[in-house]
Amino acid sequence: MRCCVSPMRIAPRLTRAAGRPACLRDVVTTSGRRWDVQGALRTMATMWRLRFDFLRGISAWIIAERYGERRLPTLQVFARGPVAGTVKTRLAAATGAERAASFYRMLVERTLATAQAARAQGYVGDVELWCASSLDAASFKTWRDRFGVVLMPQCAGDSGHGCTMRSAPRLHALPARFDIDTAEDLARYEAAVGSVG
Description:
Order of helices and strands: HHHHEHHEHEHEE
Low-confidence stretches: 1-5, 158-162, 165-176
Largest sheet: 3 strands, parallel
Mean pLDDT: 76
Radius of gyration: 22 Å
Structural class: mainly alpha
Shape: elongated
Distance between the termini: 34 Å
Number of strands: 5
């Protein structure tokens, strides 16, 4: 990340580890594109605002997005419709199909609520809900309207992940309990795989 906070993060560590920096005679030429396009005053104001964000604890990944160097990742959630007898079938053997489907609905909605919070805090961009059945199902439409997700169809005969992740070389396994504290991991990998429950 080439944002202005990089020196603020690394300079103190280098000073503690290796002492004061050395002054070199070599000359380095950098692009003045941002200064030319935005002007000196606006560019300096932006730099100081980002420094202030860093000092007050804003995530460096969010600052990078504000600086305009990083596209927020898309979060993809794979789910089935909460239809009794089709989800949590092993749990249904002990609790009954209706209770198992209700529990599954709660898990999906908790995941989508967390995704909504992650988007609001700038960890992710779009949130896609990949549906294992018809996009016209009432449950999917309800989740779309409630959580602001984009509905996508899953591949036929596929468990979900393979539809969109076969080409992602850098995979990351999210913890079993995915919450807002782990959402920042999504910014560091091309794909992150987890489960709603």
